[in-house]
């Protein structure tokens, strides 16, 4: 695992974006695993700048989101379908037909999850998966106790995660109780993982993921078993290392 500690959150985004740009330059039809949350926003902003200045061509890039809420309409501004469209597809000028998000409104959830796994396989798998980390060590929405072998499925959000994400909604009650998320088994099949974390509220989770035991109580600790992982963190998030 390569760990890069940078002085500021802004630099985390810039360095991670540079890594992704290099991949897309090398492989113009790269398949990216897309994360939501605030952590990767600086990456997307930096990539969008490369696209605008003509130094990056993303027209053949595909993207698969990690997760989606269950129970809110796709038009809701905080559905991950809407967030990915707003923060990634549009600014990075991705082809919308090449960007997929798990279908949190599907009548048959199990089938929707299987279809999603199949779509990732059909695309040839994920070249680089962008990850944030929850304060409790979750990746995607794989909360503590998630199986390392898990595939895309429905999960119940913990109260901690609902509270952490309440800032995106008008009232805490509006935060959905369930989600669809790629499993830890799905995520770990990506050829490369790039986890970014900024701020002191992530320090304990980052330390547990990197230096703690590999345990489903800290889902991000599965990174220790992956062959190609880069962790890019600011000094505050690295404070407990
Ligand atoms: C969210 C997302 C994760 C994200 C994490 C951290 O709930 N499902 O993919 O990495 O929690 O979010 P943030 O980056 O806003 O701290």
UniProtKB/TrEMBL annotation:
EC number(s) on file: 3.5.99.6
Reactions performed catalytically: alpha-D-glucosamine 6-phosphate + H2O = beta-D-fructose 6-phosphate + NH4(+)
Organism superkingdom: Bacteria
Gene3D superfamilies tied to this protein: 3.40.50.1360
Pathway: Amino-sugar metabolism; N-acetylneuraminate degradation; D-fructose 6-phosphate from N-acetylneuraminate: step 5/5
A Gene Ontology biological process term: glucosamine catabolic process
Keyword Cell membrane on entry: no
GO molecular-function term, one example from the UniProt record: glucosamine-6-phosphate deaminase activity
Entry keyword annotation includes Lipid metabolism: no
Domain Glucosamine/galactosamine-6-phosphate isomerase: 11-227
Site residues, Part of the allosteric site: 146, 153, 155-156
InterPro entries per record: Glc/Gal-6P_isomerase (IPR006148), Glucosamine6P_isomerase (IPR004547), Glucosamine6P_isomerase_CS (IPR018321), NagB/RpiA_transferase-like (IPR037171)
Family: Belongs to the glucosamine/galactosamine-6-phosphate isomerase family. NagB subfamily.
Protein name, per record: Glucosamine-6-phosphate deaminase
Gene that produces this protein: nagB
